[in-house]
Amino acid sequence: MKITKLTTYRLPPRWMFLKVETDEGITGWGEPVIEGRARSVEAAVHELSEYVVGKDPARINDIWQVLYRGGFYRGGPILMSAIAGIDQALWDIKGKALGAPVYQLLGGLVRDRIKAYSWVGGDRPAEVIDGIRMLQQIGFDTFKLNGCEEMGTIDTSRKVDAAVAVVAEIREAFGDSIEFGLDFHGRVAAPMAKVLIHELEPFRPLFIEEPVLAEQSEHYARLAAQTHIPLAAGERMFSRFDFKRVFAEGGISILQPDLSHAGGITECVKIAGMAEAYDVALAPHCPLGPLALASCLAVDFVSRNAVFQEQSMGIHYNQGAELFDYVLNKDDFKIDGGYFYPSDKPGLGVEVDEELVIARSKDAPDWRNPIWRLHDGTVAEW
Ligand SMILES: [Mg+2]
């Protein structure tokens, strides 16, 4: 079998699908994207396609190494997201060629189901109580919300109190009937992270995500030393070589590689294995579309240390399309009692509604995150 063609479709809400065709009629799909820079990743996919077209799609390991090492310069969000989507599509082709789901090709199930969690609220953590009530009705008991709004390097006790008040309200409303993680979203610098984590501890969040930015990862071990709340990070790390520093320095209890950013299934299975060796839990990051999610699930179902799976249903970013809009076999991904179950469909198990993908890609918006500024006019982390 030979790879003949790579086609990209930028799609609402902020996604990109990749179709990889072969001379034997088997087609694989992947989702190479970095949110807000889809066109850059698209250019990278097409630039890399010269190393892919004409190759045997069965040789995923070799193609991955050529894409990673073959260009001298490597790593980072754009190149690793391009590789991720190509890698996902190659696993999809392999599964379809062999008539087996990807998790079977990776050694088979290590669990029967995986807990899903859901985002509540938007960019700003207000009005979450109603959101949680609604999601509880469809079976969710685990949530994530933004832990605070924009925060200065040193900020006021008013700002801290506002963040704490939202979390206190949630605990008061729901007691221990729910769990929730708090995403600091890289908005908080180390001095305020120390304060905020301390103030939030009494409300027992399940984890605190990106307590500081990944480029300040030397603070993870220091912050972990001051708190018993598990710290999570990983969506802005792009390969084993980024993650190894976090393992070596310690501090992260829940690792969140993104299957569409960190080199795809081939790389993330290895990252998951490294995490297991360090007794670190795995919770793949996934605020994206169905092919990214299916890739996450393939890794969750073969990784003992996977604890829960993010998914984007109803997320505030999903303007213009929802998680399963482009999927024909929606029922295979139905969340039952707050859990995802393995599908026995071959490959990634996603039957893509190609007609709809082509139609919607014609007017795809260029999604951007907002630019926030602090009260004195300096740019804030979003
Ligand atoms: Mg996050």
Automatic annotation (TrEMBL):
UniProt site positions, description: Transition state stabilizer: E310
PROSITE patterns: MR_MLE_1, MR_MLE_2
EC numbers for this chain: 4.2.1.6
Cofactor section: Mg(2+)
Residues marked Increases basicity of active site His (site): D258
Cofactor note: Binds 1 Mg(2+) ion per subunit.
Protein origin, superkingdom: Bacteria
Binding-site positions, Mg(2+): D183, E209, E235
Domain annotation Mandelate racemase/muconate lactonizing enzyme C-terminal: ranges: 125-230
Pathway field: Carbohydrate acid metabolism; D-galactonate degradation; D-glyceraldehyde 3-phosphate and pyruvate from D-galactonate: step 1/3
PANTHER family in the record: D-GALACTONATE DEHYDRATASE (PTHR48080:SF2), D-GALACTONATE DEHYDRATASE-RELATED (PTHR48080)
Miscellaneous notes: Reaction proceeds via an anti dehydration.
Role summary: Catalyzes the dehydration of D-galactonate to 2-keto-3-deoxy-D-galactonate.
Protein family according to the UniProt entry: Belongs to the mandelate racemase/muconate lactonizing enzyme family. GalD subfamily.
Protein name: D-galactonate dehydratase
Species: Azospirillum rugosum
Lineage of the organism: Bacteria, Pseudomonadati, Pseudomonadota, Alphaproteobacteria, Rhodospirillales
Gene behind this protein: dgoD
